[in-house]
Amino acid sequence: MRNGRRLPVWLKMQRASGENYSTVKHLVAANHLHTICTSGNCPNIGECWNAGTATFMILGDICTRACKFCATKTGMPLPPDPQEPELLAESIKTMKLKHCVITSVDRDDLSDGGASFWVEVIKRIKEVNPGTTIESLIPDFDGKTEHIQMIIDAGPEVISHNIETVKRLTPFIRTKARYDKSLDVIRYISAKGKIAKSGFMVGLGEKEEEILKTINDLYEAGCKILTIGQYLQPGLNYMEVVDYITPEKFEEYRVIALKTGFLFVESSPLVRSSFHAENHVKAN
What we know:
By secondary structure, the protein is of the alpha/beta class. It has helices at 19-30, 36-39, 45-50, 84-95, 115-128, 145-154, 170-173, 179-191, 208-220, 247-260; strands spanning 34-35, 55-58, 62-63, 73-74, 99-104, 133-137, 158-160, 195-202, 225-230, 264-267.
């Protein structure tokens, strides 16, 4: 139940338990790591951790922004942990991951938004795990291309940046981020020859034509991979759900996006950025 509304039957989530789940939970805790799975109250934590994988979150668990859809803590972050690149790389090795997804909180307190730390993390993962591919789900770095370029030069196979919602709703649910700035980030990544990926939520009161325009805007910016999922309110102080979108409508959006030209489209109620991410490195 969320605000007295019963979740539709199609939003049933896998139970967060099991041997693999416990193993991942212990590994994350023992190495003092963070995941968006827990920080963001992801509904797929049971499925993903039971499968022995997780989406790691670097640069701490405190974000300098306070978006109205995200459950990640906000405030003044602690200094980056110099041991984090090594601990994360070794954890990925222990989990025997063939593909990993790394994201981060926004670090507007750092002069480069955390880009140099991102580079350290990516390089160390590649050194310790030479056969593992990487998706970097990055913040917008305030649109500064020199910082985005640092990530590109580090060599992750996929670079993603989520636009999160349609243009009209962006000022209401995102703080410093802007719709057009996010498109510019995607455009820059694509122009440099990297696989660009993005995603957005539905159920926040957007209109059909706004959804279709967002799909088209991302494609025109060079986005190759798209994820669309249902917004779920993570707590009482966040934006309320306006609509629960049916699986049939999600499938309709998937077909439209594929016809538009996207190479991979994940569109269903419980889809999140890292859903089936191991397949997205095949895009070209």
